[in-house]
Design goal:
heterodimer; A: about 475 residues; alpha+beta; Pnp Oxidase, Chain A; UbiD C-terminal domain-like; 2 domains; eight-stranded antiparallel sheet; five-stranded mixed sheet; 26 strands; globular; B: about 60 residues; mainly beta; 1 helix; about 5% helix; about 25% strand
Chain lengths: ~475, ~60
């Protein structure tokens, strides 16, 4: 059986049942679902949530179930890559890296073999308002699509996958906002020829498809092959209804919406609650015309809780793996670990640990990490004794190993993230390097420790009462 | 992020943000996220706290 959303739900139930909850009471996707997720977040709880009964955007009971927060913990992402839930730190980054390099060609299946073709809506039967698409934040106002957008390069046919906000404007029309990356390049080239760009929006599949959409790979690389690598098996594809084999779509998706980005058409789109935790302003953006909607008979509509852990974490893991590989290959082979913390939206800040062998390696590691990913703004480099997944340790290293007049470097007028609220110019930003490694050219203070033989001899289990042990989780 | 400005919808008085380069002084219509009314920046009303869907009153 091919890996799909249901395979992943089963894995969650078996490996981490606490990571999945279900809601039986009917929910309205317009703000009510996000209110549930926000209430959970307010309690520091980030389970995937399956709403077994949902309304559609007309306020009617929907045949679709609704699911969100699928990637809201690294533990869930570890399970998605067939790891155990406790393997969420460097093990997860290294497994992503290994699988991303192991490209696997997709396989093509017939329409009869494709669950996503069980229901097909075309022409006058298309109605986006029949979907349980979420309106998430107050100023979004309306419902948006926000999951994976897949397109084929108009010149080479290579596939890209990426996440985008797409406001539902009518039964068949959406907006689409894209930063200047791969999809932007695809569409600009199609538009110069006066042609629309076919796209497929995938709402509901195995999390690997989302993790691949956030990978750092060159524009020449096929992201269906990356997705297959992350799945550790070929993703099954099937020709789209509207575009045939010009646009292959995932056969095991829950829902696929096929559309064209229209050339030379722009309309107001947004504001939208972005991954940054702030509203991105209304833009004069692309417009899409939907050509077909296909889905399973018992569909689960998956939508990302953008601006929260669900969106941050799924974006960070691919960045960690891609950046680690680049630093290791091109700059500092002794790089140990990397983390894009959730405090930086898993995009803007990275913590890198290295086994520094010579003065200057920390700066080299930091500099190598900027070119592949424009949203990265602040890099903190620490020694290998610091756990980059422990923010308190990282900030302790900054507090005790950095003098600001010597340990900081600012690089001005470098391409930055277009959605960074602090960036005044659209793509022109600046970068900060914090070298929090110990100096190589002089003796440095030793960190504190307890005599090792005593640490080995003294055991809390032997000294504390059962009640006290229970209190501190022993 | 692109430069932005706050604008009030002339129909529902909802307040939202829009990109300056895309709409300010341009002959383009914005769409109010709350009531879908289309209007140009010259038709916008003064942004007011607590209007529209209540963006300033959003529960934490």
């Amino acid at each position: 059986m091919a890996k799909d959303l249901r395979h992943f739900i089963k894995a969650l139930q078996e490996k981490a049942p606490e990571e999945l909850i279900t809601v039986e009471k009917e929910i309205d996707p317009r703000f009510e679902a996000s209110a549930v997720l926000q209430h959970l977040e307010n309690r520091d709880a980030f389970p995937a949530v399956l709403f077994n009964k949902s309304k559609n955007l007309r306020g009617e009971s929907s045949p679709f179930r609704l699911m969100s927060n699928l990637h809201a913990t690294r533990q869930k992402c570890a399970i998605a890559l067939d790891l155990e839930k406790h393997e969420w730190r460097s093990e997860l980054v290294e497994e992503y890296s290994r699988r991303q390099r192991n490209r696997i060609k997709p396989i093509i299946v017939s329409r009869e073999e494709a669950p996503v073709k069980q229901v097909i809506r075309t022409g006058k039967d298309i109605d986006l308002f029949e979907l349980p698409a979420m309106a998430i934040h107050a100023m979004d106002g309306q419902a948006y699509l926000n999951d994976v957008v897949i397109a084929a390069d108009p010149d080479t046919g290579v596939y890209n996958s990426s996440h985008h906000r797409m406001k539902i404007k009518s039964k068949t029309r959406t907006g689409l906002y894209a930063s200047p990356r791969h999809l932007w390049s695809y569409f600009r080239r199609a538009e110069e020829r006066g042609e629309p760009l076919p796209i497929a929006m995938v709402h509901g599949h195995h999390p690997a498809i989302h993790l691949a959409a956030e990978s750092i790979v060159p524009i020449e690389d096929d992201e269906y092959e990356v997705t297959s690598g992350l799945l550790n098996e070929p993703i099954r594809l099937v020709p789209s209804e509207a575009f045939g084999d010009r646009l292959m779509v995932p056969a095991d998706a829950e829902v696929v919406i096929e559309a064209e980005i229209l050339p030379n058409v722009r309309e107001a789109e947004g504001p939208y609650g972005e991954f940054t935790g702030y509203y991105g302003p209304s833009r004069y953006a692309w417009v899409c015309e939907v050509k077909a909607i296909t889905y399973r008979k018992d569909p689960i509509w998956v939508q990302m809780f953008v601006g929260h852990a669900d969106c941050s974490i799924v974006g960070g893991i691919g960045k960690e793996a891609g950046t680690l590989d680049i630093i290791k290959a091109t700059a500092v082979p002794t790089v140990k670990a990397i983390h894009f913390p959730i405090s930086g939206c898993c995009r803007f800040i990275s913590y890198i640990s290295i086994a520094q062998k010579a003065e200057g390696e920390a700066r080299v590691a930091a500099l190598a990490s900027f070119p592949p990913f424009d949203e990265l703004k602040i890099v903190v480099v620490v020694d290998e004794d610091i756990d980059v997944f422990n923010e308190r340790q990282v900030l302790w290293a900054v507090a005790t190993r950095v003098q600001p007049d010597d340990g900081l470097d600012i690089i001005r007028h470098v391409r930055g993230g277009t959605l960074d609220p602090s960036q005044v110019r659209l793509t022109d930003g600046s970068k900060l390097i914090i070298d929090a490694t110990k100096p190589q050219d002089r003796p440095f203070a030793k960190t504190l420790d307890i005599p090792a033989d005593v640490m080995g001899r003294i055991r809390l289990e032997d000294l504390l009462s059962p009640a006290d042990r229970a209190r501190i989780g022993i | 992020m692109v430069d932005m400005f706050w604008v009030g919808c002339p129909k529902c008085r909802g307040t939202f943000c829009a990109a300056t380069r895309d709409f300010k002084g341009q002959d383009r219509e914005m769409i109010c996220p709350f009531c879908s009314h289309a209007f140009k920046d010259t038709e916008g009303v003064e942004p007011q706290e607590g209007t529209g869907a209540g963006w300033l009153k959003t529960a934490k």
